[in-house]
Amino acid sequence: MLIGVTLGRYLAARFLRMILGVFLTVFALVYTLDFVELMRRAGDAEGASAAVMAQLALFRTPAVAEQVLPFAVLFGAMAALLQLSRKLELVVARAAGISAWQFLQPGALVALGIGAFTVGVYNPVSAELKQRSTEIEAKIFARSSKAASGKDLWIRQRSIDGQAIIRAETAVEGTTTLAGVAVFTFDDAGAFTQQMQAARATLHDGYWELQDVRVQAMDQEPQSYDTYLIASTLDPSQVRQRFTPPESVPFWQLKQTIARTERAGLDATRYRLQYDVLMARPVLFLAMVLVAASVSLRFFRFGGIGKMVLGGVAAGFVLYVARQVMEGLGASGLVAAPVAAWFPAVVGSLLGTLALLHLEDG
């Protein structure tokens, strides 16, 4: 049975306000920490002004904050329900004959709506901003000694010129461009021939194009070039896929990316998993509301609020761990992508419903 429109709007507004409050708090915290870290890395790098670092942090933050959205829904729903209980509004609602299932309807609809919005609008925007942030990082930190983060990219290739090992400090997502590049070349016998340092390198069909290059060959003086080409047998589509994590592909482009990857004869499991994870997000948010309700409906006068909050945090953590484990199994191919994506959301919803049934209906 549905509740009245006025009460429904009131409860929905409370849920929405609390969830947004938690999310914006986390967003601001992530932005501040990232800005401080970027300023530390920037040092005296050319073009790394405070304004540019602030913009870069703003571009990077949405993708990071997207990972904590389920917790924002969980803690926001818990805060909304606890506040309603503290003000005795839930007591009045129950006295009026409204069951827990009825006053949870607005919260469930808000969770589903937020889930659909984050999938269709927020995710594409955050993915686009993340790609733009990698471009800015590549330009600013390509020649800076502070760019290295211990996660260098390594590529080995064999071509008509012999073997080559390529190390890059960063890659521009969605492209075949590397920044902060070092190339070590060897002849067919495996003997070292020369080393190249370049600000940027872009893979084309059949060759790498290096820009702002310094070449150090054996027994020769170092030489500098604006552009330098080296042969390559690597497939640009393979390199592009390797440098583009699924999280950086907007939701509306995932199906095209999956089709393009499969046409190239490559494994599209990661992209399929990301698509299913996003599709399951509204149900996951609904599960978070049900879990929050199962630990937040106790009246304040009964005490034990601290244990309830701790139980909600523990339940959210367990659900998060289960989600990460299933996604890992799905990415490795041990579990089908739809099962890995939907299992945490469906099981979380069922367990939350079971807990509410036990509390409300015995």
Automatic annotation (TrEMBL):
<dbReference type="GO" id="GO:0043190">
    <property type="term" value="C:ATP-binding cassette (ABC) transporter complex"/>
</dbReference>
<protein>
    <submittedName>
        <fullName>Lipopolysaccharide export system permease protein LptG</fullName>
    </submittedName>
</protein>
<feature type="transmembrane region" description="Helical">
    <location>
        <begin position="63"/>
        <end position="83"/>
    </location>
</feature>
<dbReference type="GO" id="GO:0055085">
    <property type="term" value="P:transmembrane transport"/>
</dbReference>
<feature type="transmembrane region" description="Helical">
    <location>
        <begin position="334"/>
        <end position="359"/>
    </location>
</feature>
<keyword id="KW-0812">Transmembrane</keyword>
<keyword id="KW-1133">Transmembrane helix</keyword>
<dbReference type="InterPro" id="IPR005495">
    <property type="entry name" value="LptG/LptF_permease"/>
</dbReference>
<feature type="transmembrane region" description="Helical">
    <location>
        <begin position="103"/>
        <end position="122"/>
    </location>
</feature>
<feature type="transmembrane region" description="Helical">
    <location>
        <begin position="278"/>
        <end position="299"/>
    </location>
</feature>
<dbReference type="InterPro" id="IPR030923">
    <property type="entry name" value="LptG"/>
</dbReference>
<dbReference type="Pfam" id="PF03739">
    <property type="entry name" value="LptF_LptG"/>
</dbReference>
<keyword id="KW-1003">Cell membrane</keyword>
<keyword id="KW-0472">Membrane</keyword>
<feature type="transmembrane region" description="Helical">
    <location>
        <begin position="305"/>
        <end position="322"/>
    </location>
</feature>
<dbReference type="GO" id="GO:0015920">
    <property type="term" value="P:lipopolysaccharide transport"/>
</dbReference>
<feature type="transmembrane region" description="Helical">
    <location>
        <begin position="15"/>
        <end position="33"/>
    </location>
</feature>
